[in-house]
């Protein structure tokens, strides 16, 4: 590839220029940019930007990659950067990456630029493009999906973390013969970001829910219903909340906060684990804080989530398991229309190396509810 200008509908991809120094330095010093691109100099100064423009970007071109400034087609002002790296000519493969300046976010700039550069790369003979994202960078995952990339899996400890250590990267891939997007999703977003019946509201978990969710999942009675009857660490709960949107985007789980619709306070948690996408099946789980119990909130939450699962998601079957002695949970499922299907002997690991039974409940899309 050569450093030619690429004109797209919403963006212009052009070589970096020296008059981009100030904007590049400002954008790359932004905390969000630095959080997800650990390889950038720290601190990022105008000297760093000048080096990139005069030496870093030309080196990318010289080694078979690409380094474009994303610019506004009308004003030509810098909006971000995008490029190709890690070229493997024998495989027709490269990695695409981007960043967007704070003043240009929320306008579809990254998606437009990614589509434009991907199309240009494929036209030049590239067969496969990879896009790697930090596990908490849901905004970048949305760009990948919008630009036609599909989730392939996790690259464990693939990238150094700023300040020490390493972290995983999630891999997204688009092939030359794939559509430009958007990629269909197994789990759509909730309408207006929530489900509610006026008493209960379900919304996606966020990092702000960490403390309340940690309190919930370290209650002895909730620990007793976990797959492994061991209380989680706060770090594990913090990660669960931090990657909830990412897990939703890849279609593995819809992890929601169960809130009082009147106060907005978290009353519990509810999750739909998409355990068998090929058969149109998912598992439900739920739990409530002590002060929220006895008010029918869990039943309302299960009804809301099942209606969404059988409606917009298009599932055929939902199932849930309870401990044989957990009569309260069984009543929740029965009130929501689930039918008892049987006892699964030794279904789960229990205490002291023993196995624990579970009672299986299920609801089909065409069952009366």
- Residues in β-strands, percent: 25-35%
Uncertain ranges: none
> Mean of residue pLDDT?
95
Strand order of the biggest β-sheet: 1-2-3-4-5-6-8-7
Overall form: elongated
- Give the helices and strands as they follow along the chain: EEHHHEEEHEHEEEEHHHHEEEHEHEE
**Number of H/I helices:** 11
CATH superfamily of the largest domain: Gcn5-related N-acetyltransferase (GNAT)
* Oligomeric assembly: single chain
Total count of domains: 2
Rg from alpha-carbon coordinates = 24 Å
Report the top-level CATH class of the largest domain. Alpha Beta
Helical coverage, percent range = 25-40%
Alpha-carbon distance between the termini?
59 Å
Structural class: alpha+beta
CATH architecture of the largest domain: 3-Layer(aba) Sandwich
Spell out the key features of this protein.
Aminopeptidase, protein-N-terminal-alanine acetyltransferase activity, alpha+beta, 11 helices, Ribosomal_N-acetyltransferase, 369 residues, elongated
